Amino acid sequence: MSARTALTRAPALSRLCLRSVNGNRQARKPSSIVLRTSFCPTYAQTRSNSSTSTSSWTDRLFGSSKPKYAPGEFAKDPIITYDELLPITEQPSDDIFLVDVREPDEVQSGMIPSATNLPLSDIKDALDPKTAEGDFFRKFSFRKPLPDQNIIFYCRSGKRSAAAAELAGERGFKNVRNYRGSWLDWTRRSKGKDDEED
């Protein structure tokens, strides 16, 4: 591992993102007022071209209790449940890409931890194989998912995320799943979990 790789990976542990009103991600400055923070996958992604290791750096550092999926096994069941999603959000990795397909103004109410926002209105063009990775990154501030990457879509109630999963499948993405309960189910169950802990 080069020194540059080590330096770019280490800040991912403490970097948070602040979503501005227009939906763009910005690195949080220590002196700024934080309205809402979330894990920022832009900083967590490996920025090295090194092929010495294929496992996630967080897995190497902390170990992983998440199940590893064999090729084709992730999307065997196209629906993912809250109980399956919770451990994925508690230990995010590059293996699974969590995508919120709501519009930026809807996302202001909050997001599932470790999710990135890719509005349904942009998915058809954004996931097109002809869309350059650089153009995708400039528009959305995170790397374009790979066609064989494990992707979970969610929205407010599960309808738009089902449409997003279908569009992604048409664009060659085969390892896609839909969180049917989506944001409504997440907030209801998370609130119940918080009440039990009090």
Task: Give the secondary structure arrangement, pairings included.
Elements: H1 3-9, E1 16-19, E2 25-27, E3 37-39, H2 41-44, H3 57-62, E4 79-80, H4 82-90, E5 96-100, H5 104-107, E6 116-117, H6 120-126, H7 133-140, E7 150-154, H8 159-170, E8 176-179, H9 182-197
Parallel strand pairs: 4-8, 5-6, 5-7, 7-8
Antiparallel strand pairs: 1-2, 1-3
What features would you describe in this structure?
- The chain is an alpha/beta fold and 198 residues long.
- The protein has one domain (53-197): Oxidized Rhodanese, domain 1 (3-Layer(aba) Sandwich).
- It has nine helices and eight strands.
- The strands form two sheets. A five-stranded parallel beta sheet has the order 4-8-7-5-6. The protein has a three-stranded antiparallel beta sheet with strand order 2-1-3, with no helix packed on it.
- A hairpin with a 5-residue loop joins strand 1 (16-19) and strand 2 (25-27).
Number of helices: 9
Which sequence of strands runs across the widest sheet?
Answer: 4-8-7-5-6
Biggest sheet record: 5 strands, parallel
Global shape: globular
Averaged pLDDT, please? Answer: 74
Strand content: 5-15%
Number of strands: 8
What's the architecture in CATH terms?
3-Layer(aba) Sandwich
How far apart the termini lie comes to 44 Å
Report the CATH superfamily.
Answer: Rhodanese-like domain
Give the SSE string.
Answer: HEEEHHEHEHEHHEHEH
In total, how many domains does the architecture comprise?
1
Give the structural class. alpha/beta
